[in-house]
Structures are given as structure tokens and as C-alpha cells.
UniProtKB/TrEMBL annotation:
Domain SusD-like N-terminal: 94-251
Stored PROSITE patterns: PROKAR_LIPOPROTEIN
GO cellular component, one term: cell outer membrane
Protein keywords: Cell outer membrane, Membrane, Signal
Species per Swiss-Prot/TrEMBL record: Mucilaginibacter ginsenosidivorax
Protein name: RagB/SusD family nutrient uptake outer membrane protein
């Protein structure tokens, strides 16, 4: 693909064509400036729409260009959900080992409206999602010009473009709330008042995205999007019917959630044409609609052969405990596994940097500076996971919650920990997802080429020895490191995997949530229990009845809501879900304002190291921090836009 630089200028809020290419209206939706990273596929550097759609080959290049606008969600500095919330923390300030500091500044409360961090509205990491939407519209408007395109291929390509247009709108909606809907490109001859677009009500945006996804998923198995990708060598990463239906389910669950359903915090937010952007009235039917969408997606997934992933070790001998741990890790890290609904393959190595950021030094005889170990979960994440009995640590009547910060010595019976090591009671008798997801001083780390010990007190090989390459909290994100990663003192070989935008367990938990909120709590339990069984846990009913101090908790809507939310927080930990879930549930002001604690990593003894240390006191300001600010300059360019509340 060749890089095409698009030159535009503002003249009465109108742009101008460059070298015959249809106008790139960066002004649309108040965008502030031209971006010089718009990828187009044009033969011989002749930048014309006619050449881009002259034949099937050129049009297919244009289609693949649409995918290039997708944010790199598997990159730790390009997805706000990794380091922009409270799921992972990092030493500060950083002078090395980063691509962008934007997410870390968001986590520290430094977001601003003059030059917003991670500003995907105008352009971040070379990607403006409005440009992506415009490219989709251009593709849809011109595909009929391709004369050598088989009808069935055309139908599929149209569906892909509609899906991507919906996804770009969705990404912006999740970040900014009510946004303009850009279903058609604005003509270069349009008067200024047509260019000055308005933000649309949240419900209208949700409905528009859902309709686009319905269009994308339309047709039978032989029409439109495929249900499964059959050409693995050329098409993995392209969207399927199941992906379109699953993303629709996520959109509708979000639209039914408290942030968008009966939220009075934004009751006064109106577009400049007088339209209310948030409906303050709660609508229970939104949950019913969301549940129905989830079920359609689940049925489509089942028909396509998708199922929860279970680890098959092959010739590698592992015990039953390790198998359960690898059920969890490889449901994310095994490429194209059985429960992956849609995985992003952007940049060719979508999770390369993520794994480097996550893995610490594991071998004292092979120190490698590419193993950074800096993506550090805070102590609150360690406390989130259940006990081995499948209930919260503060609810388990058999677990010593009061003494969770006191030292104990491990034995050979403590799977996932080094025998004869001392660590806090918090790390004992926890569910397998805890040991699969997180590593800590005294834990073990299973890889395909062997099991390593993590020892991270001061000056130990996994710990702090310099101003970089260490965990500020004493915890490490094991879950997102592929077990095939191999390192020596001179080389690291990382097996990158598609970033799982949606996997089946995520969809099951969305369905359970929608069922509970729509009055079908009993129907939600089987989907929760399937996810729990894969993690080696008993059912919700059995665990709460036998081990919880609140045994009837799951029998009420509010009680099951708490269970579902914690189950989701655990199952989806370190996958970019928590950041958005806390917002849509409207629990962010409490959770994201809680202090960030870690262990005293500057100490070398068991007693001194295993002391809680306050690292940061974040503050989530509601309603301001629920949404990104629109850049101030955009509001000057397009006075029909309004700023988000609090900015």
C-alpha cells in the first residue's frame, strides 16, 4: 500500500479536493487539522477514486485499507484500557520503554480539553476514526464501479465495510458518548451549515450502530459475511457473521447499562439544536433487547463450532492444576483458538509489545533487557479474585481474611508457589485464575520450555535493580504472555497472537448480565457456571450455599448482579474490559478513586517486602471522567458541537 498525503484547507468550513481524490472532510465532526497518514491504495501514485476502484485487485486493497484504521487494541500504549485505569500501574516518570505516555497520564488524572490524550477523534497513533468512517463511506459509494467483481464477493465486501463503519462509530461512542452519525460523506459542494454537524442522542447512536451490524450480519451461510474463516493463510482477522452479532450484543448491553440507561448525571447535556443527548428515563426493554442479541450471537457461535477453550497439552506433560491454569491463559494467548470470536491482527505482531511489557526476568542466568515486567497490577487486583471455593475473599467463611497480609510459609501442597517460600496469606488458597493471571514474589511461572520461579525482592533477578524494567507493585500480568515465548541473554522470540476483541466467555457473561437485569436471573446461572467450570470452580449455587457468609446472595437480582460483575472482572482481567465496564456500570467514581497499593519492592527481607505501600491516590471526577473531552479547537471550528459535561 502506498501512503497518500491528503492536503486540505479550511475555507468557510469546507475542505478541498487534492489530486482528484474525493475530499477528506477532516472538518466533519469538528476535526481540527489534516492528518498525513491516510492510507490509500492507488496504482502508480495516481490518486483518483477511479483508479482505486478500477478492478477487483485495487478495490480489495482499498478494503484492506479500511481495516488499517482499527486501533491497535493489543498494544499497551495504544489502548487506554491497559494503563489508563487501575488494572495495571507503572513506575513514574518514565524516560524509556514506552511509545506514548498518553494512557499513563489519563490514569493519573491529567486528561485535558486543550490537547486531549489518546485523541482518536482527531487522530492518535496516526489513526483518526472519522477518517476511517469516511473511507468506509467512500468504499460503499464506489464499489459498483468495479466491473470484474463477482456478486457474492461484492456482498461480502459491503458487509465488511458496514461492520467497520459501525465499529468505528462504536469506538468513538464508547469514548465520547453521543457523537455525530456520519452515514454518508458530506459533498464538497455542501453549504457550511451542512458541514457543521451535531452530536446525536445516545439512543440514536446505539440504534444506528446496531442497524449497521444487522446489515453486516445479514444473509445465510453462503451470503455476505462467512460464519467462519476457511482460508486461514489469507483471511484470518477479517470479520465474520458471528463477530458482527457479538459486537452488536456488546453495543446493546452497553446501551442498556446505567451510564446510558436512565442516567440523570447528563440530563442537562443538549446538542446545540436543543436535542437531549441522554434520555434520563430508565427503559427496562433495553435489557430485554440486549439479552436477545446476546442469545442470537451465542447461537451463531455454536453453529459455527465455537466453544470454550480447554487446554490440550499435546506431548507436554502437565498436571491437572496446570491444565486449568492453561485453560485460562491460552484462551487468550493461543492463536485462533476455539473460543476466539474476533481477533485483531493489526501491525502483524499485535501483542508483541504487550508481552514484552508484561513478562519479568525469569531466569537469573539469562537476563534480557527486552523483558520489561513493568505492566504491574495493583494489590486491588489480587484481592479481586475468588478463594479456591469460588467466592470473594471477604465472604468465604473458611478463609482467613483478617490475616491476609500476614506472612505464611508455603509447602509442596501450594500449587503455583515455590516450596518453603514466605509470602502473605493473600496468596494462599485462591482460585486458579489468580495464579494463571498474576505472578508475584514466591510464585511460579509455567512456560512451554519449563517452569520458572519469580523472586522479586530488592536486587533479586525479577525485582528492581535499576530505574526501569521492574514492577512497581510487585505483581506481574502473566495471563497475557504466550507460553511459547522463549528468551536467552541475547534474544527474545515472542509468538504474537491476535488480540481478542471478543471471545466466547465474554459473550456468555454479557448474556448472563442481560438476563439478570431483564428479570431472568435463573437463566443466567448456566452461562456463569460454564465459565466457572472451565476455571475449575463449582457452580455459583454450590459455592455460595456452602462457603459464603451470604449464602442466598445469588437468589436476588442485586446479589446476582454483584456476582456477575465480579465474575466478569475476574474472567476478563487484563483484557481491556474493566476500564469500560466500570464506566458503563457507573461504579468508576468509587472504584477508580480507591488508592493504588503495592508491596514494598525496595526491601530485601520477607517481612519488609511484604508490607503494603501507597503508590498513588487517583481521583475519578464524575460525570467529567466518564467521557473524553472534545478538543477545544473543534468547538471553535464547529460551534454546533457541544462539550462533554465537566470539561
Amino acid at each position: 500500500m502506498k501512503l497518500l498525503t491528503i492536503y486540505t484547507r479550511y475555507s468557510g468550513l469546507l475542505g478541498r479536493k487534492s489530486i482528484g481524490l474525493a475530499l477528506l472532510l477532516l472538518i466533519v465532526a469538528g476535526m481540527s487539522s489534516c492528518k498525513k497518514s491516510y492510507l490509500d491504495v492507488v496504482p502508480d501514485n495516481v490518486a483518483t477514486i477511479d483508479n482505486a476502484f478500477a478492478n477487483r485487485n485495487e478495490a480489495e486493497k482499498y478494503l484492506f485499507t479500511l481495516y488499517s484504521y482499527l486501533p491497535q487494541e493489543g498494544h499497551p500504549d495504544k489502548n487506554p484500557a491497559f494503563s489508563g485505569g487501575d488494572e495495571a500501574w507503572t513506575y513514574w516518570p518514565m524516560t524509556e520503554d514506552f511509545f506514548y505516555l498518553d494512557p499513563y497520564n489519563i490514569a493519573r488524572g491529567n486528561q485535558n480539553r486543550a490537547d486531549p490524550y489518546m485523541n482518536y477523534w482527531d487522530g492518535y497513533d496516526g489513526k483518526s476514526l472519522w477518517q476511517g468512517i469516511r473511507a468506509c463511506n467512500t468504499f460503499l459509494d464506489n464499489l459498483d464501479k468495479v466491473t470484474d467483481l463477482q456478486p457474492y464477493v461484492k456482498v461480502r465486501w459491503v458487509a465488511e465495510a458496514k461492520f467497520l463503519k459501525a465499529y468505528f462509530h462504536w469506538y468513538l461512542f464508547r469514548m465520547y458518548g453521543p457523537i455525530p452519525i456520519m452515514d454518508k460523506n458530506i459533498s464538497i459542494t455542501a453549504p457550511p451549515e451542512e458541514v457543521k454537524v451535531y452530536r446525536q442522542p445516545a439512543d440514536s447512536v446505539v440504534n444506528y450502530i446496531a442497524r449497521l451490524l444487522d446489515d453486516a450480519a445479514a444473509g445465510d451461510d453462503n451470503t455476505g459475511l462467512p460464519s467462519v474463516i476457511t482460508s486461514a493463510s489469507t483471511e484470518l482477522g477479517r470479520v465474520t457473521k458471528v463477530a458482527a452479532l457479538a459486537i452488536k450484543a456488546r453495543v446493546l448491553v452497553t446501551g442498556a447499562s446505567p451510564l446510558f440507561n436512565g442516567n440523570n448525571d447528563f440530563a442537562g447535556l443538549k446538542a446545540n439544536n436543543g436535542k437531549l443527548l441522554f434520555n434520563p428515563q430508565y427503559d427496562a426493554t433495553k435489557w430485554t433487547r440486549a439479552a436477545a442479541a446476546c442469545k442470537v450471537a451465542i447461537d451463531a457461535a455454536a453453529a459455527a463450532g465455537l466453544k470454550l477453550y480447554y487446554f490440550a497439552p499435546g506431548i507436554t506433560a502437565v498436571d491437572d492444576v496446570t491444565k486449568v491454569e492453561m485453560n485460562i491463559r491460552n484462551s487468550v494467548c493461543e492463536k485462533w483458538n476455539s473460543e476466539l470470536i474476533w481477533g485483531l491482527t493489526s501491525s502483524g505482531n499485535p501483542t508483541f509489545r504487550l508481552q514484552e511489557y508484561a513478562i519479568p526476568q525469569l531466569d537469573p542466568n539469562n537476563i534480557n533487557l527486552d523483558l520489561k515486567g513493568k505492566l504491574a497490577p495493583p494489590l486491588k487486583m489480587a484481592e479481586l479474585f475468588y478463594t479456591k471455593n469460588g467466592v470473594p475473599i471477604e465472604e468465604d467463611k473458611t478463609w482467613d481474611y483478617a490475616n491476609r497480609f500476614k506472612l505464611r510459609t508455603t509447602t509442596s501442597a501450594d500449587a503455583g508457589m515455590q516450596n518453603g517460600y514466605q509470602t502473605v496469606g493473600l496468596h494462599f488458597d485462591r482460585e486458579r485464575r489468580f495464579y494463571a493471571d498474576m505472578a508475584f514474589d514466591g510464585s511460579t511461572w509455567f512456560m512451554k520450555n519449563g517452569t520458572y520461579n519469580v523472586q522479586s525482592k530488592l536486587e533479586q533477578y525479577s525485582g528492581k535493580k535499576q530505574s526501569r524494567l521492574y514492577s512497581i507493585t510487585g505483581y506481574y500480568t502473566k495471563k497475557i504472555v504466550n507460553w511459547n515465548l522463549v528468551f536467552s541473554s541475547t534474544n527474545v522470540t515472542v509468538e504474537s497472537y491476535p488480540w481478542p476483541v471478543m471471545r466466547l466467555s465474554d459473550l456468555y457473561l454479557l448474556y448472563a448480565e442481560a438476563l439478570n437485569e431483564s428479570g431472568n436471573s435463573a437463566a443466567a446461572l448456566p452461562y456463569l457456571n460454564q465459565v466457572r467450570a472451565r476455571a475449575g470452580l463449582q457452580s455459583v449455587e454450590s459455592s455460595w450455599t456452602n462457603f459464603s457468609t451470604n449464602p442466598a446472595k445469588y437468589t436476588s437480582v442485586s446479589g446476582l448482579r454483584d456476582i456477575i460483575r465480579q465474575e466478569r472482572g475476574i474472567e476478563m482481567a487484563f483484557e481491556g474490559s474493566r476500564f469500560w465496564d466500570l464506566r458503563r456500570w457507573k461504579t468508576a467514581p468509587q472504584v477508580l478513586s480507591a488508592p493504588i497499593y503495592g508491596w514494598d519492592i525496595l526491601q530485601s527481607s520477607y517481612e519488609d517486602y511484604n508490607r503494603r505501600v501507597l503508590l498513588y491516590s487517583p481521583r475519578f471526577v464524575a460525570p467529567r471522567d466518564y467521557f473524553w473531552p472534545i478538543k477545544e479547537y473543534n468547538l471553535q471550528v464547529n460551534p454546533n458541537l457541544v462539550q462533554n459535561s465537566g470539561w
